[in-house]
Specification:
The complex is a heterodimer.
Chain A (H helix, E strand, L loop, with lengths): L10 E12 L3 E13 L4 E5 L6 H8 L7 E6 L2 E2 L7 E4 L11 H11 L4 H14 L15 H13 L5 E5 L7 H16 L7 E6 L2 H7 L2 E6 L4 E7 L11 H15 L26 H12 L6 E3 H8 L3 H13 L3 E4 L2 E4 L1 H8 L2 H15 L1 H12 L4 E3 H8 L5 H18 L3 E3 L4 E3 L5
Parallel strand pairs in A: 3-8, 3-9, 6-7, 7-8
Antiparallel strand pairs in A: 1-2, 1-4, 4-5, 9-10, 11-13, 12-13, 14-16, 15-16
Helix pairs in contact in A: 2-3, 2-4, 3-4, 6-7, 8-10, 8-11, 11-12, 12-15, 14-15
Chain B lengths: L18 H21 L21 H32 L1 H16 L2 H15 L4 H29 L3 H9 L4 H34 L2 E4 L2 E4 L3 H10 L3 H30 L16 H8 L1 H19 L15 H31 L4 H37 L2 H16 L6 H11 L3 H4 L1 H6 L2 H13 L3 H9 L4 H35 L1 E4 L2 E4 L3 H11 L2 H33 L4
Antiparallel strand pairs in B: 1-2, 3-4
Helix pairs in contact in B: 1-3, 1-4, 1-12, 1-22, 2-3, 2-5, 2-7, 2-9, 3-5, 4-5, 4-22, 5-7, 7-9, 7-14, 8-9, 9-10, 12-22, 13-18, 13-20, 13-22, 14-18, 18-20, 20-21, 20-22, 21-22
The chains are: A alpha/beta, B mainly alpha.
């Protein structure tokens, strides 16, 4: 906190768009017109689910990839590759397993040619700051996840970056460890001991964003767009049970479940329409589990999603896809941050296995167009067999290869559970029924 | 210790067009024909080479052993240089990779000993009248037995660098030079060390074979253990053969204890895994280096110098990840590139055919194919026999961890031992009992290569999950059902890896194994190996080229039709992860 007065933005993204070329016919838009700025003395959070391009934004800011159009200005200079003032902390830690903690931390200094003595003293200072004393000569594989991420933080801080980028830095850690690291980092930040001017972090954890950030930018997926910016003016250290805190969390949940025009891609609904629907790989067990939790005698009619997330220990990334599939199959409805069982959902939760399968099959056939298409094709063919490729290539007209793969996997699993189709992995063929 | 490095290139890239294999095949055989043609004139002028006299005294053996080891070391250095240039080139340029990788794949299947004829004459032409030419030819043969799988393993490591590490290196602005030594070499290190060590194990076979060469009317001997044995065979001196076997055994033991084990254990620290693996006892030689002050003090300057070199900031740090070439230029480049390949292909095909057509007709091709079929049958039958023998034994050993560790060391040792040193003993037996050469020479082909099957089966059985064993015991699965449903699927991926190596090695060994001499007595089995060996002896280059081409064809066809599908199936269906 060297300079408390608001100044010119340190970092600015102007109309950043990112598209992946696929097959020459159409481009797949990942980010669409992202404008954002980062001022000094701010921690800004990019919040969104997988597929909203938040990690892509971070990689563009850090100069790892070039935007398709638009530009990134860092200290009024266009970023056209990695620059010394921006350092990154990785979700998977990205530590070099053959280097010790000390060598890992020194790596960034080596690259910019700092001499040996200064390298050593700066690295030791960073290690000290981040609470890694005593681990200098350990190899990453000897460390717990929390300690590994501390190495990742020390390695980024040792180069004294103006901007610290963090890509879901705590999501690979267990709940307790993650909380310790968050509070340690925030303590250092408010005490002004971090050698950085500002930080930009990507997260899919709403509470984490409200806990740590001064400003939260909510992204909507497919393509990634900025849906909303929220200033969080709570003083540190923040208390999760504080009404102000809860209100921010509730607001963000409400925003992320807000329903728009049902026929257009919703802010947080299942993207795409008809055959082109991108279906998440949600297992039938997860769906049943959530339905059973909602039908429990103690459960109110409408349940706050944030409460469910806390009670079931689910991250937004895990909870939302399940809830959305339930909504797609009309087993549940989401509105304003709440979820409510439908009549069908109640039936399902109370039914036995065979009834559940029948009910599920009905819903699949009436609400998932891809299932309808597969059934029709299989029915039309004399041997009732079709290669998976036939559907894969059709899906790829609407979505990326990866999404197509996920969608097919979801459909195969659901179809198998509902016993309306069979799949042979060896030959990659769909058929009507398993041999009996 | 049981890295499943595939001996077949391009596993898992099912979409790879086989067209590139054809291109690579034609390139290699065509170049061979060209070299042979060029060497034709020079072969007569090399009679001036001094004939080294080989003494059969056991006291001369340490000196000879040293010469053999030096040859091996020189070849290893060459292989490393090749690996560090070839693999990055293939990994970083898509166009180069397109042709280089199939080339590597085919080169792996070429019978190396068939090369010898050409390399000797070619290197002789470069160093006329000097023994240096023969020396280089021998080293080149060893190099060709080592380099390909090393380069391929490094290439695989380069193309599978974890994305986050690559991004971290870029984000912290490592220069290309720093990136190479800090990220790319360490990532490739476990695979590279393992393959280098396996290559060296295999290399002893070729170093021994390449020291005594006869091309046409010319015999060349290089002082070494191989030529010592060859001389002993001519003199029918069984005692000298025994001494040579002992000397070789000691050399391999030293190599195993001083180099192989410490290096492989050391390379373990580069394994890309974030969990601490089960600690195994470090080899004594590694402890010696790591825990004694003297060794540390001696290594310090080396370490310092290497560290300094690795830190040099050569080259510019990466900018944005590749921006695609502007299309028109890219297309023009494509056109030029593919026409160059097509031209090269045409030239090679023409060379190949015109060269062989000088003396050979279609009937010769049929003859070679027929003999190839004989050898093929031998290889398949032998692999089947080795499978029946070694799979049960390997499983039995592998399920007993303490025993497995000890046996594994022994098998590594035995596999490294050049089997061709043992051929004379078998030959003496066949001569004494008047055995049929067509049958009894065959086992020699697999003498040195069967160990790969045993080795891999033990490795597979020893990592078979304990809970699955307990489950099958709990459900009372026994007997044949246990083998079919539990154990065989579990070890299958490992078995296939071993069988591929064994089958490739056996083809190579056939050139030595299908013909054998004992003094004036000559044993001869019908097959492609003896066809190549005979042609080499007569200096009939056309037949040698034909023989190599046919053998290459057989090896590649077996790999593509039999082994690769099996390997892919094993990778898809029979993995525990």
């Amino acid at each position: 906190m060297l300079n408390p007065a608001p100044t010119e933005p340190l970092l600015r993204l102007r109309d950043v768009t990112q598209a992946y070329r696929k097959g020459g016919t159409s481009d797949l838009l990942v980010l669409d017109g992202i404008n954002l700025s980062l001022r000094e003395n701010q921690i800004v959070g990019l919040l969104g689910r997988s597929g909203c391009g938040k990690s892509t934004i971070l990689r563009i800011v850090s100069g790892l990839i070039a935007p398709t159009s638009g530009d990134v200005l860092f200290r009024d200079q266009t970023v056209s590759g990695p620059v010394p003032g921006i350092a990154m902390v990785f979700q998977t830690f990205a530590l070099f397993p053959w280097l010790t903690v000390l060598q890992n931390v020194e790596l960034g200094l080596e690259a910019i040619g700092v001499d040996a003595a200064e390298r050593r003293s700066r690295a030791l200072t960073a290690i000290d700051l981040i609470g890694l004393d005593g681990f200098e000569s350990a190899y990453p594989k000897e460390l717990s996840g929390g300690m590994r991420q501390r190495v990742g933080l020390a390695r980024a801080l040792v180069v004294h970056p103006d901007v610290l980028l963090m890509d879901e830095p705590f999501s690979a850690l267990d709940v307790l460890t993650a909380e310790t690291l968050r509070t340690d980092l925030i303590d250092l930040w408010i005490e002004g001991r971090l050698p950085i001017r500002s930080a930009l972090m990507v997260t899919h954890n709403i509470e984490e964003a409200v806990l740590m950030c001064d400003r939260v930018i909510v992204l909507s997926p497919n393509p990634g767009r900025i849906a909303l910016e929220i200033e969080i003016n709570l003083t540190h250290p923040r208390n999760r049970l504080d009404p102000g805190f809860r209100k921010h969390v509730g607001d963000i949940y409400a925003l992320m479940t807000k329903r728009q025009d049902p026929h257009s891609p919703t802010i947080e609904g299942i993207p795409g329409t008809g055959i082109g629907m991108v279906l998440p790989t949600v297992s039938t067990n997860e769906m049943a589990g959530l339905l059973e939790a909602l039908v429990a005698p103690t459960a109110p009619v409408r349940v706050e999603l944030s409460d469910i997330a806390r009670a079931l220990q689910l991250e937004v990334d895990e909870l939302f896809p399940i809830a959305e599939v339930l909504q797609l199959l009309r087993f549940a409805e989401m509105e304003a941050g709440c979820i409510r069982l439908t009549e069908g959902g109640r039936h399902f939760a109370e039914a036995d296995t065979d009834q559940r399968k029948r009910l599920f099959a009905e819903r699949l056939e009436s609400h998932v167009p891809l299932i309808r298409l597969i059934r029709r094709v299989l029915d039309e063919r004399p041997n009732h067999v079709a290669p998976l490729d036939r559907f894969r290539s059709e899906l790829e007209d609407y979505m990326s290869e990866q999404y197509a793969e996920e969608t097919l996997r979801a459909v195969i699993n659901w179809g198998r559970y509902a016993e309306i189709l069979a799949y042979d992995e060896e030959t990659e063929r769909l058929s009507l029924e398993d041999p009996s | 210790m049981s890295d499943l490095t595939s001996p077949i290139a391009l596993i898992g890239k099912r979409a790879q067009p086989n067209l590139w294999d054809a291109v690579a095949f034609a390139l290699i055989i065509g170049l061979l024909a060209a070299v042979a043609h060029g060497a034709h004139g020079t072969v007569m002028s090399i009679s001036a080479v001094e004939q080294s006299h080989i003494s059969l005294s056991p006291w001369a053996l340490p000196g000879y052993a040293m010469r053999t080891v030096m040859r091996m070391a020189a070849a290893m250095v060459a292989s490393l240089v090749f690996t560090f240039t070839f693999a990055p080139l293939a990994a970083k340029s898509q166009r180069a990779g397109q042709i280089l990788i199939p080339l590597l794949d085919i080169l792996q299947s070429v019978p190396i000993l068939g090369f010898l004829t050409f390399t000797v004459t070619a290197f002789m032409a470069m160093f006329p009248g000097s023994v240096l030419g023969v020396e280089f030819a021998a080293i080149f043969v060893i190099f060709t037995s080592q380099a390909w799988n090393m380069a391929f393993s490094f290439y695989q490591a380069l193309t599978t660098i974890p994305r986050d590490l690559s991004e971290a290196a870029t984000n912290f602005q490592l220069s290309p030079w720093q990136r190479f030594w800090r990220l790319e070499v360490p990532i490739g290190m476990p695979g590279l060390v393992w393959n280098a060590m396996m290559s060296m194990s295999g290399g002893w076979f070729f170093v021994v074979a390449s020291e005594a060469i006869t091309v046409g009317t010319h015999s060349f001997t290089l002082p070494g253990i191989g030529s010592y044995v060859a001389t002993a065979l001519d003199a029918r001196d069984l005692g000298a053969v025994a001494w040579a076997i002992l000397a070789m055994g000691l050399v391999i033991l030293a190599y195993d204890q001083l180099l192989f084990r410490p290096l492989v254990a050391w390379a373990d620290k580069f394994k890309f895994e974030q969990t601490a693996s089960e600690a195994t006892d470090d080899p004594w030689a590694l402890k010696l280096v790591q825990r004694t002050r003297l060794m540390q003090a001696m290594l310090m300057p080396v370490e310092y110098a290497l560290g300094y070199l690795a830190r040099l900031r050569l080259g510019k740090p990466r900018a944005h990840t590749s921006v695609p070439l502007p299309r028109p230029l890219g297309i023009a480049f494509d056109v030029v590139w593919y026409s160059l390949i097509a031209l090269g292909l045409g030239w090679c095909l023409w060379r190949m055919f015109s060269y062989m057509a000088m003396t050979l007709g279609p009937s010769d091709a049929l003859e070679a194919l027929k003999l190839g079929l004989f050898t093929f049958v031998r290889v398949i039958v032998l692999i089947a026999l080795a499978t029946i023998v070694w799979v049960p034994i390997g499983v039995w050993i592998g399920l007993r961890p303490a025993l497995a560790r000890r046996v594994q060391s022994l098998v590594q040792f035995v596999a490294a031992f050049p089997a061709n040193l043992l051929f004379p003993i078998a030959v003496v037996l066949i001569v004494r009992f008047h055995g049929n050469a067509d049958i009894w020479l065959s086992p020699l082909m697999i003498l040195g290569t069967q160990w790969y099957i045993l080795f891999n089966v033990i490795a597979g059985a020893s990592v078979f999950p304990g809970d699955l064993r307990e489950a099958s015991a709990n459900f009372g699965i026994k007997g044949w059902r246990w083998w079919r449903k539990v154990m065989l699927p579990g070890i299958f991926p490992y078995y296939v890896t071993g069988a591929i190596t064994a089958s490739g090695g056996s083809w190579n060994a056939s050139i030595l194994a299908e013909v054998a001499n004992w003094g004036p007595t000559r044993l001869h089995a019908h097959g492609l190996g003896s066809y190549i060996a005979d042609a080499t002896l007569k200096g009939d280059y056309q037949r040698v080229v034909l023989g190599i081409a046919v053998m290459c064809g057989f090896v590649i066809a077996t790999n593509r039709i039999l082994w690769r599908p099996l390997y892919e199936y094993a990778g898809r269906r029979l993995r525990f992860d």
